[in-house]
Every structure is written in structure tokens, then in C-alpha cells.
Amino acid sequence: MRPAENIEKLIKNINIDTNAKKDEAVLGDVLEAFEKSKVKKTSAIEQNIWRIIMKSRITKIAAAAVIITAAMLSINFLDKSVTPAYGIEQTIEAFRDVNSVYVEATNRNEKGISYNIRMWARRGEDGKFFFGDFRQESSYGDTVVANERENLTYCYYPSTKEVYIYEGLTETIGSFLDINFFLYLQEEMKDVKMEYGKDEVPGKETVSLSFRGTEKYQKSTGKCGVIIFDLESKLPSCIKLWDNPDFQGDPFTVWTLIVYNPKVREDIFKFEIPEDATVIRD
Amino acid sequence: MIEDKLLIWRFKRGSSDALCRIYKKYKDNLLRLASALSNDQNAAEDIVHDFFVSFAQSTEKLKLNGSLKSYLATCVVNRVRNANKTRQQQENIGLDGAASVESNSKRPEQWIIDSEQLRQLNNALAQLPEQQREVIILHLQGEMKFKAIAELQNVSINTIQSRYRYGLDKLRSILDSEVKL
């Protein structure tokens, strides 16, 4: 009898010849269809608007008013052009060039006691999170290391001298410093408001974006928050989160420093199990 | 996963670069899948071509809940099923009157790596019931998880795992009997 694994391996290895010329021809057709559908969409939208406007006499008069108003508005926009426009999509695009990050933050625990944390993260394989390797150190001495090569996550608690080891990368730098979060924010987040020019980061033009989280993100990002973006890089430079939905009291976490693309030492993402620690594998 | 989400996001906003990347990233996998399921490489090439053309025009309708890879595989599998049905209907009609015409399409035997073992494997795969063959090919070649296949075939994950197990057992016995012969 052949072992089942051999058959599985054989099927996985079945391969086909691909013809580069054919590939290019197919891609050409695909792109042509894509461009045509874009043109169709634009002209359909334009036609619809024009049909609606020109259907009645009232709307014809209104159309003239719309044109005059639009001309006035464009002058207004020009006046306000001192403040660069910002959209979340610019942050999503800017994240493409982020390969590593260093963060300093202050957190508050359930008892209201503040403690500091430092975090390092590095982009890795295309996985569950935007970042792969990750390290977090708190002023209590608690340490979390997620090592992509080992595909393990270590959580060390010096107070109990315990090291928990989990299969896979179960921890990351925070769901709100992840492209996933900004994609979600753009599509579904409730009550997203933007304010320009808050001087939270000295010497930098910023835009502050406040949001109330939906259920999916409340657990990890708090019930509401403010993200301050540097308008030059379009990346977050400060993050504050509250555990109530109305921005009441002090935030439970404040990210005071976010450095993008710092040089990160290789050993930062290695975890040495302390000699006197008890290892608990999950 | 993250890359795919970004690709879809950019594709929906009209980026042809993102569409190119999606095509290049998944075309081989989809072609392998379609070839294995249809047993006909020419038909598979047509299916993948037609699918990508229609995908390129779907920016407005497209809404992904799961992974891009599973979505693409599901679309191609459905197209293969439709093509297989049409082919079977045509073959049935053909049996009544017209003389059978030798297909000039490239059979999997030609594109499989030139090895007797793989040729036998392909023949054995063709002898499996369609549902078992589909599960095995989707799981091993399409790299789809049992959960995604269960959703595609609209049955429970246990049924999919059984079909996979029975399919592999049957493959093994077919291959063993061929060796004995």
C-alpha cells in the first residue's frame, strides 16, 4: 500500500506548462476589459447626472445655480488650500513603505495604575497581521515576543516566573497600527471626524481623526479613539484610546512616540527562556 | 492575506497594477485547478481567461468576505462545473447521431511532468466520483481549507473530510491495483 502522504505529495506536485506569450495575451485582454469597464462607468455616471438635471424646467434652472455655486466653491477651496487635504487612503498607501516600527506608549491597567511599554515590530511574510516579528516590553518586566521564523509567540511574566509559549503569531503591535484597521475604518467605522492643524506633534502639520469603534474593533481598540496623523508622511504619529464611548476622562492608552522604519537589531525578536522560569505550552 | 486585502482595495479604486498583480499571483494556481477538474487544458485556459476578463469588470459588485484566494478558486470551480455540464450535454447529443470526433485538446497526460507515476495518478483521479475528486484537487492543488470547500459544496465540514479520506483511499487502491497488473 502506498502511504496516503505520498499520494498527497504527488497530487500537490502535479504541474502544468505555462506559455509566457499566452499569459501576456490573456493579461492584455483582462486589462483592456478593465479599462473599458472604467470608461463605461464614468460615462454612465455623467449621463445619469445630466439626464436628471435636464428632465424638468425647475432642475434646468437649478442646474444653472449649481454651476454658479460650484464656481464659487472652487474659489473657496483654493483659499483653503493652505491645509493639505487628507484621506485615509493616503495612510493605507503610505503603509506600503513601512517595514519596521518602534513605539513608546503609556497604558493604564484596570486598577488605574499607569505603566510604560516599548514595542518593536517588523514586516514579515504575508500573514494574519501586517507586521510579523514583534516584541513588547513593559515597565513591569512583562515581555511578549512573536518570532515569525520559529512561528511561536512567547509571553513572559517575571512576577510569576512563567513563560507561555503559543503556536503561531498570536500577538502583534496593535490592531490600530495595521492596514486592516485603516481599511476597516474607511469602510465601516462609526462617526469618523477629522480636524486639521492640531499641534500635537511639535513642528508638524497634523490631522486628527476621532472615531467610535464598532463591536468588531471595540475589544482591541477601545470604545473610541483619536489618531493624529503627520500630514507629511500621512502616518499615525500619536494614538489615544478610551474605554468609554464619549472620550470621557483620561485615555487608557497613549502612544507618545511612533518611529517608522528604524533599524532594528536582529536579537530583538529572539526570546531566551529565563533559567528559573516555568514553561507552559498552550 | 494583508497583501490581498490591499490589492482588492486598490483594484476596486481602479488600479490596473493591482489587477496585474492579482492575475500574476493566482493565474498558475487557478489554471492548475481548472485543468485538473476539467481534464482538458485548452478548456481550462479558456475558463481562466474568461473568468479574469469578467473579474476585471466586477469592481463595483465585488465584495469579499473571506480570502481572495478562496473567492477566485470558487469562481473558477463554478465555471468548470458549468463547462463540464455543457460538455456532457454535447457529448450525449453527439452519441445519438454524429460519429465521435477525437478531441484534439491537450490531455493532462501531456502536461503532467513526464513521469509514469504521475500519469497513473492522473488516470486514477479521473476514476474518482466527481465530488471526491473535487475535494482532493481543491484541497491539495487549490490549497483551499476544508471549511472553504464545505462552503463551496454546501455540505458540512465532516462530509468534506470524509470525501477527502474516501477519495484518497480509493486513489490508493486504484494505484495499487495498477501496479499489480
Topology:
The complex is a heterodimer of chains A (282) and B (181).
Chain A: H1 4-13, H2 20-54, H3 57-79, H4 88-94, E1 100-108, E2 114-123, E3 131-138, E4 143-147, E5 152-157, E6 162-167, H5 179-188, E7 190-196, E8 206-212, H6 215-221, E9 224-230, E10 236-242, E11 253-260, E12 278-281
Parallel strand pairs in A: 6-12
Antiparallel strand pairs in A: 1-2, 1-11, 2-3, 3-4, 4-5, 5-6, 7-8, 8-9, 9-10, 10-11
Helix pairs in contact in A: 4-5
Chain B: H1 2-12, H2 16-38, H3 41-56, H4 68-96, H5 108-111, H6 116-127, H7 130-140, H8 146-153, H9 157-180
Task: Give a brief outline of the structure.
The complex is a heterodimer of chains A (282) and B (181). Chain A has 282 residues and is an alpha+beta fold. Helices cover 33% and strands 30% of the residues of chain A.
The oligomerization state is heterodimer
DSSP, total strands of chain B: 0
The ordered string of helix (H) and strand (E) elements of chain A is HHHHEEEEEEHEEHEEEE
Class by SSE composition of chain A: alpha+beta
Count helical runs of chain A: 6
The whole-angstrom Rg of chain A is 26 Å
Structural class of chain B: mainly alpha
Strand content of chain A: 25-35%
Instruction: Assign an overall shape of chain B.
Output: globular
The CATH architecture of the domain at 92-122 and 174-260 in chain A can be named as: Clam
The strand count of chain A comes to 12
Q: What is the CATH architecture term of the largest domain in chain B?
A: Orthogonal Bundle
**Overall mean pLDDT of chain A:** 78
In terms of per-residue confidence, which ranges of chain A show pLDDT below 50 for 5 or more consecutive residues? 66-82
pLDDT averaged residue by residue of chain B? 80
- Helical proportion of chain B, percent range: over 70%
Fold-level CATH name of the domain at 92-122 and 174-260 in chain A: outer membrane lipoprotein receptor (LolB), chain A
**Unreliable stretches of chain B:** 97-114
C-alpha end-to-end distance of chain B: 47 Å
